[in-house]
């Protein structure tokens, strides 16, 4: 273990197995996997989290497993044990591929060889210590679970029979590609850009590259590309996915991204008994179970009984929520309590938009704008319409009135919704002025 960083000390700090982060309920250790793991190896990891932490596990928005409530001593033991379970652990900067990489018949190209070559290049050039801790590379093969929504300093996205589109900074935007690269040039260009970032120092991020600078660094490797549509795959990985080897993946998610280690251990034992061969945490706080189609189908009831989300139309799937109080020292209210109230409003949370509930203005759970973002502020909760957590609020709510405000908003949508209209369309049509009566009820 190398460093312990208070969560509030430095924006942009990123925890890992060897560098846990201080949170409101102790240290947080992140285990990032580069490939699916066996249920048994994950049972061992959960048992270690229970032994050494408070037994609460997160699956993060990027699909990493996080153990909470550790101490400086127990975090060392947790790291040491975690490295003995045969898990495909990732060290160094995030170089993400899709959770079905190499298994998805709908994939445009297999991203794993590129990701591995970039990983090796970063190690050989000793870049990781000189890059911003949250530096992320996304190598997206497309298919049914694309990574378009994940933030990336450098993004390579496959285009069938054409090569790899290069982007820098942010989520994927169709008009923001710098150009097309061959697979070899994609690796070399990513390493050139990462080297340049390392030279500029740990505050420099992919979003800081101008288009001219990228063109100058990539040189003749970069071929012009027309704006490519963002992949249409559903970013919510629920249900059954047929794989290219005859197996199936079954996507589920713990409610609000958290699960007790005991619950997950029981579920993993049931999965192994049912014939599930491998499991991969996935972006969107999800878990993908991989096995024969019958084994995956058999796990649906077990998942529901254990409290997991199994369907995209579950209202809980429409809520992006951070750990909040008491887990995070920056949190100004109990985000999960408000999320549980919101989950009782299926007419409002019909899957047409994401409700973002954030303990403070930082907005960890959903860095992008949301149609409704509720974030803690010193005197209550800021309500932002079509904005980010921390954006200038449309209204300020008292903490104990926020749930009532959402109920009033749900009733308003129910009343004003036109035929065939989703909640999102209705809210956008009404706009801030149209929903103001619902907000004034909870205004502090
Ligand atoms: S957004 Fe949530 S998890 Fe992130 S710092 Fe604020 S309260 Fe903590």
Automatic annotation (TrEMBL):
The keyword Heme applies. Coiled coil: none annotated. The keyword Isomerase does not apply. It comes from the Bacteria. Its EC number is 1.14.13.83. Keywords: 4Fe-4S, Heme, Iron, Iron-sulfur, Metal-binding, Oxidoreductase. GO terms for molecular function: 4 iron, 4 sulfur cluster binding; metal ion binding; precorrin-3B synthase activity. InterPro entries: Cbl_synth_CobG-like (IPR012798), NIR_SIR_4Fe-4S (IPR051329), Nit/Sulf_reduc_fer-like_dom_sf (IPR036136), NO2/SO3_Rdtase_4Fe4S_sf (IPR045854). This is Precorrin-3B synthase. It comes from Ectorhizobium quercum. The lineage of its organism: Bacteria, Pseudomonadati, Pseudomonadota, Alphaproteobacteria, Hyphomicrobiales.
């Amino acid at each position: 273990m190398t460093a312990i960083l208070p969560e509030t000390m430095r924006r942009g700090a990123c925890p890992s197995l060897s560098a846990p982060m201080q949170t409101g309920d102790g240290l947080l250790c992140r285990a990032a996997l580069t490939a699916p793991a066996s249920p048994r190896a994950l049972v061992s990891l959960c048992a270690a989290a229970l032994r050494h932490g408070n037994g609460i596990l997160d699956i993060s928005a990027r699909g990493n497993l996080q153990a909470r409530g550790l101490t400086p001593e127990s975090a060392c033991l947790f790291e040491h044990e975690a490295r003995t379970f045969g898990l495909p652990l990732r060290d160094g900067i995030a170089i993400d591929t899709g959770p079905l990489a190499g298994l998805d018949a709908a994939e445009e190209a297999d991203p794993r060889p590129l990701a591995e070559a970039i990983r090796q290049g970063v190690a050989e050039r000793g870049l990781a210590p000189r890059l911003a801790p949250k530096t992320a590379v996304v190598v997206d093969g497309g298919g049914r679970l694309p990574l378009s929504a994940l933030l990336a300093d450098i993004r390579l996205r496959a285009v069938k029979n054409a090569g790899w589109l290069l982007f820098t900074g942010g989520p994927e935007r169709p008009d923001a590609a710098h150009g097309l690269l061959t697979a070899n040039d994609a690796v070399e260009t990513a390493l050139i850009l990462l080297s340049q970032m390392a030279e500029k120092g740990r505050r420099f991020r992919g979003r800081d590259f101008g288009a001219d600078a990228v063109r100058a660094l990539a040189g003749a490797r970069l071929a012009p590309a027309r704006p490519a549509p963002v992949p249409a795959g559903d970013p919510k990985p629920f249900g059954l996915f047929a794989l290219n080897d005859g197996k199936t993946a079954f996507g589920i998610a713990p409610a609000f991204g958290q699960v007790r280690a005991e619950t997950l251990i029981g579920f993993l034992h049931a999965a192994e008994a049912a014939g599930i061969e491998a499991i991969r945490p996935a972006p969107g706080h999800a878990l993908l179970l991989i096995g024969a189609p019958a084994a995956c189908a058999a796990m649906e009831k077990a998942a529901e009984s254990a409290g997991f989300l199994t369907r995209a139309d579950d209202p809980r799937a429409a809520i992006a929520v951070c750990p909040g109080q008491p887990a995070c020292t920056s949190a100004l209210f109990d985000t999960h309590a408000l999320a549980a109230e919101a989950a009782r409003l299926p007419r409002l949370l019909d899957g047409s938009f994401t409700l973002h509930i954030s303990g403070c203005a930082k907005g960890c759970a959903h860095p992008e704008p949301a149609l409704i973002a509720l974030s803690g502020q010193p005197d209550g909760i800021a309500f932002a319409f079509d904005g980010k957590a921390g954006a200038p609020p449309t209204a300020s709510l008292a903490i104990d009135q926020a749930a009532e405000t959402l109920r009033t908003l749900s009733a308003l949508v129910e009343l004003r919704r036109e035929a065939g209209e989703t909640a999102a369309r209705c809210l956008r049509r009404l706009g801030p002025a149209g929903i103001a009566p619902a907000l004034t009820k909870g205004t502090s």
